Amino acid sequence: MHLMGSPIIDVRQVERTLGITFAAANDLVERCITAGILREVTGRRRGRIYCCDASANALGHVTASLDAAVQAGAA
Fold first, then answer.
1. Pick from 2, 8, 5: which is nearest to 52 by CA?
2. How many CB atoms lie within 10 A of CB 48?
3. Helix, strand, coil % (nearest 5) of the chain?
4. Between the chain's N and C termini, which has fewer beta carbons within 10 Å?
5. How many structural domains comprise the chain?
6. What is the model's pLDDT at position 55?
7. Assessment of whether the complete model's pTM goes beyond 0.85
8. How many CB atoms sit inside 10 A of residue 50's CB?
């Protein structure tokens, strides 16, 4: 999957990206939750959204570094 570029996903995105059935995508997402790769963030029973915290944190670090570089260049 493309978790580094897009750390927020849902089961339908997994289904489309990997070209697998909804059931297989749902099973894969559940396995990723069990492995600590994904975390469900909505608290809903339907239309759930999942986050890959490691990717989100890495993107946040990159964004903060870029912001600092831009600010340093503007000074």
1. 8
2. 15
3. 55, 10, 35
4. C
5. 1
6. 59
7. no
8. 21
